[in-house]
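Title: Request for sanity check on Aspartate-semialdehyde dehydrogenase prediction

Description:
We are preparing a figure and want to confirm that the structure record we downloaded matches what your pipeline produces today. Could someone re-run it with the sequence below and paste the raw C-alpha cells into this thread? We only need the C-alpha cell string, no images.
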Amino acid sequence: MFKPVNVAILGATGAVGTELLELLESRNFPLNNLKLLASSRSAGTHLKFKGESIKVEAVDEKAFDDVDLVLASAGGSTSKAWAQTIVDSGAVMVDNSSAFRMNPDVPLIVPEINPEAAANHQGIIANPNCTTILMAVAIYPLHQVQPIERIVVSTYQSASGAGARAMEEVKIQSQAILKGEDPKAEILPYPLAFNLFPHNSPLTETGYCEEEMKMVNETRKIFNTPHLKITATCVRVPVLRAHSEAINLEFKAPFSVAQAREIIAQSPGVQLLEDWQKNYFPMPIDASGKDDVLVGRIRQDISDPNGLELWICGDQIRKGAALNAVQIAELLMEKSLLNIAKSSLKV
C-alpha cells in the first residue's frame, strides 16, 4: 500500500479529464484529496467520483498549493501557462499535451517501454501522442527481439482525438446527412460524418503534418533510437472512438510471423486478436473502452522478406491518453519518485 497523495486533474471536464476520473476510481488510486480544475467557463460544474459530487474549480495561482500530483489534459497552451507554477509548488505534472514532449529535460514515457526514464524527471513527465502510444506498445516487444530498421504507418483516427465536442459534432452531422441536410463543421475543419480527410494539424515545410511528425519524433525518443527510419500518414475517419493503424515494419533479417504472434500474445498492454477463418481482426468497436491495444492480421510483407505487416486498434482516450497518464502516476508511486524537492527546471 502506498501513502495517499493529493491529486489535481487540470482539464477535468474534457473527454480525457473525465476518463482520468473514472480510472482513478476503477484502479483504486491512493488518493488523499482530489481537486478538479478547469477554465472559468467550466468552473462550478460538478463531477461524480466514488458516489460523491465534486465541484470543479477555476485554475488559479493557488490551485496547486498542497498538491502532490497534477494530471494535465487541458491542451498545450494551458500546460505551458501553468507548468512553472506547478513545478514551483513542488508537485509533479504528468502532461498529456504536446507542450514538453520533445524537451530533452522532460521524460516521454510509455510505462511498458521505458519506465526507467521516470527517475530523471524534474517535475514534469510528458505523455506521448495517442497514435504514438498505441503503435509503440504494439511494436516494441518485436523491437526488443530484433531491432526495427524502418516503420511505415498509416493511421485511421477517430473523432475522439479532437475531443468530446468533435465526437458530438459527428453525431449531429450524421443525423443531418440522413435527413438530407448539409452537415455543418465547426470543431473540425470539414464534415467528418460519412467522410474522411488527412489529419488537420498544421503542415510542416516537409509536407508532413504535425501529427505525423509527432509519431516520428516521439517514437525515436521513447525507443531511444534517434535515427530510426519512420514515415507516417495520418487520416481522420468517421469513427467516434478508438484509433486504428496499419503498420509495416522492416527488420535487418526475416522475422517469422509465428514468432511475432507468440511475442505479441505474451506482451503487456497488448492483446492478439485474429480469426483468419472469419476474416475477423481488431476493430474500433472492439477496442473502445479497453485498456489493451488490439493487434492482429500479422503477416509477411510479400514485397520484402524482412518485413512484417500489422493492424492495430486502440482506445485513444484510454491507453492513448488517460490510462497511460495514470500508469505513469502509478509508476511514480511505485518507485517513490513523486515527492521531490522543488525543481530547478525552468519552463
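Thanks, this matches our download. The chain has two domains: 5-99+321-334, 131-316.
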